[in-house]
Amino acid sequence: QVQLVESGGGLVQAGGSLRLSCAASGRTFRSYAMGWFRQAPGKEREFVATISVNGGTTLYADSVKGRFTISRDNAKNTVYLQMNSLKPEDTAVYYCAGSMGIAPRAEGAFGTWGQGTQVTVSS
Question: How do residues 41-69 score in pLDDT, each as one tens digit?
Fold first, then answer.
């Protein structure tokens, strides 16, 4: 089982960009579909994006489509989330997660989670 560590969060002004990284330990990273989720204060955790094991399939929440891009580098055991045109409503703790599914959206399909990284977007 892989262990996941997110980085790249921080404070940014509305309209700005951030790139989150999620580094995985272990040699089985390329066997996992990877996803990003987020949880804003007082809200439930929600799906953001997912990517299949070879990167050929990506899916996005409607709220981030066209602004966020998920990608992965299996040689570096890392998955990324490029976030552009950030809005205050993107403020949340962002989590990466691993799944043995193809490119799932459901939180329950993900069995491995990172500790999260805070993203704060000021208006």
Answer: 999 999 999 999 999 999 999 999 999 99
